[in-house]
Design brief:
The protein is mainly α and 64 residues long. Helices cover 77% and strands 0% of the residues. It is globular, with a radius of gyration of 13 Å. It holds the Pfam family MT0933_antitox.
Length: 64
């Protein structure tokens, strides 16, 4: 895997180990995008933030 993939895996592992801190980062990023776009993409940022949180909150199982 390339450097970017390795960094992404490390970030995921870190987020799983510190979910509260990861939540703060996701929330800050979502807020920043919403502020800079005037909430034009609010629904999309909400969806992306939820997906990010699921990626480190879930125990690796998928619901169907």
């Amino acid at each position: 895997m390339g450097k970017l993939g390795d960094m992404a895996n490390k970030a995921k592992a870190m987020a799983k180990g510190h979910p509260d801190q990861a939540d703060k980062g996701v929330t800050r990023a979502e807020r920043m995008v919403d502020e800079r776009t005037g909430d034009k993409y609010d629904a999309q940022t909400d969806k992306a933030a939820d997906a990010a949180r699921r990626s480190y909150r879930d125990s690796g199982t998928t619901e169907r």
